[in-house]
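Homework-ish question, so no full write-ups if that breaks the rules, but can someone show me the predicted structure for this set?
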Amino acid sequence: MSRQLHLGAFIMGVGHHAAAWRLPGAAPANLTRPGYFKALAQTAERGKFDYLFFADRLALSDRYGNNLDASVRYLAGSRLDPVALLGLLAGATSRIGLAATASTTFNDPFSVARRFATLDHLSEGRIGWNIVTSTNDGEALNFGDQPILEHEARYRRAKEFVEVALGLWDSWEDDALLHNGHTGEFAEPSRVHYLNHQGEYFSVRGPLNVPRSPQGRPVLIQAGSSDTGQDFAAELADVIFTAQPDITKAQAFYQRVQQRVREHGRAEGALKIMPGVMPFVAASREQAQARFAELEANVHPLAGLALLADSMNHDLSVYPLDEPLPALAEIRGNQSRFKLVQELSQREGLTLRELGKRFGGSRSHRVLAGTAKDIADDLEQWFEGGACDGFNIMPPYLPEGLDTFVEQVVPELQRRGLFRRDYQGSTLREHLGLARPPSRFSQRA
Amino acid sequence: MSRQLHLGAFIMGVGHHAAAWRLPGAAPANLTRPGYFKALAQTAERGKFDYLFFADRLALSDRYGNNLDASVRYLAGSRLDPVALLGLLAGATSRIGLAATASTTFNDPFSVARRFATLDHLSEGRIGWNIVTSTNDGEALNFGDQPILEHEARYRRAKEFVEVALGLWDSWEDDALLHNGHTGEFAEPSRVHYLNHQGEYFSVRGPLNVPRSPQGRPVLIQAGSSDTGQDFAAELADVIFTAQPDITKAQAFYQRVQQRVREHGRAEGALKIMPGVMPFVAASREQAQARFAELEANVHPLAGLALLADSMNHDLSVYPLDEPLPALAEIRGNQSRFKLVQELSQREGLTLRELGKRFGGSRSHRVLAGTAKDIADDLEQWFEGGACDGFNIMPPYLPEGLDTFVEQVVPELQRRGLFRRDYQGSTLREHLGLARPPSRFSQRA
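A: Not a homework solution, just the prediction itself:
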């Protein structure tokens, strides 16, 4: 069989597009309804997606104007806790992988390692963890009275956090459990290990109080495309999420990251590169573009600017709406995303108001509008052209945007031999073609 | 209808009794299996229980000998993260309440408030939070390099923690959501509130990024029976879990706590008092007692002492096994539990070895062994005698211990008019006869 692409269903609220909740027939109340999320997961599973994915944030947006007015009024900005949500979905599905973000900035490694190990047990091996550093003062203020850590410190903390989590996931060897009712021996103490980690940010003794999970550890996903972020992913991650605006840049990114993977001595194919794409699929190209235009027209500029201010961690309310984004030397938030936004703004000569509308739409991810064949052509070109290992599909409006992709684009990819017709394995690692890692302690024996 | 008693199904591993996992036919692998937990929740729901409840700990036990040997070898001591587990069970049930422990010592209030609000949405109003303070150095060492906080500091932190959580749950008023697609107004900013909490332990700005949940806030459960614990419950909790060895003491406890509830100006019936009971149910009294004796015989003394050392936060390995527990002036762990253990040990003249076996069994909760009629007689006597508002049923071995209770004891209680034949409401607050609290911000209007 030829090389197969991987697909993630990246779910955001009632759609990635900031105006999705305003569509006639949209149901913004779905944001807190269990039946809505179950149905989405089951649709993605019917489409044989590798995984369903939820991002996360730990505050409402309020960097624009340093108040909640714009974001509460114009954004469908509430978010359920993704660990509880993955617990629900583990029971509502049986094959598809389930992944979510947890911040290394405002959590502790023991709790995160335990939660994801638990989810891996409850899903029987289908869990992924998207490792992020939080970039926003609004989030910081829900966890203390200090502004957010600076970029390098965030990544130092993230790296130590992941090292501790890896140690905890290894702390029970696979054969630690004895379950010998006759002798009364439940487990073998020499196969359960203290970690005794003492580092710059964390002191964690271990072991975990959850036995080793079906995948050994969850699939590790990383989403930062800064230089530090790329290196972090090349060393530690199984999957990298990225926003790539065109195929040439994506090919260069792919080469650069895979080179770093080799430099870290990891095997070919150990890191899957998955750019985001927002597909508008319809029976004709015109219909798809009309739907896209309808949504774009409905983004309130302040909705997009509230999102952008939050991503940049920078108050944009001080700049005039009808002039271009001023040249900002440095921002404290998401730096690689900001670079894309700056390029877009200059290239197209956008005012801040226009930039707000644009960012509220695709948030600098790539938009495709066309027939199922058009979309499949584009994805095939990127995949065969060495620009990626697959895609994070970001339905602009839900649930219809996912339904349409599953009903129309997936079969087209299957016909071309690019995508599985059914799941072959049972764990997310198996879907992604990744090996199950042994415990470091078993290796020593 | 006469006053009805409330029942919680308190689930621990494969049974509360430390030797449950050794029974012929026991399946200790169930400890990490989703199907096992789903089936238990569905059984309890068939039995019309008010709620299913999971306790939690944040470390393996290692106070005995300050190493893992006794607990890993002899105890079925692993525990899944209860938030992920309640997420799973929210989807596997539709009426029963779902409650779990989260520590105020090793969590932060924003995360806990958000997780439980999320679970309340995903279960459509069926969630309870058991508020605990952690008492153990082994837990502390998974979250830093300091030993556990002292008793009063733990409770000060717990109280501030709960106050912040209550504020966050109120931060979205019930009518904050507008969902007006026509005007593009998602929610009304004047009905979403910053908290701006600055206290001794926490600085939390808020608001929560989850709208107000179906119950307004989860049912609040408290499980400490120390003087500070009682006062905490009398002021803030909806339910109190307690270990009461005999009816006279339970009646006195009931009076004392209800007096404190009145002193806090709360309504009659606002706090439900639920002692634990471990029932062995069989067709004859002899069979029930034989099953109890079989389990007691199979507790390894070190299994019980590992649990007891952990509860006391005190290394018991330094005392001779065949002499009585020495008089200890003070211990740093669970103080009310320790008092019960000391009384038991002195009353029955137990050696440390015997005490270990005994503690591994009921852990100082009350054991009932008999026919369904015997058990119902006892529960009725306590309930009608003003000793409690209901019971936390602690099945000694699972799943059979819960099956038997649901099939035999519940119908007997129903025949006597003491327990519901079906759910009347849809939320846990409704099952317990508790009002839905308004948001503090709505009240001000």
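Now go work out the reasoning yourself. Hint: The first strand of chain A starts at residue 6 and ends at 11.
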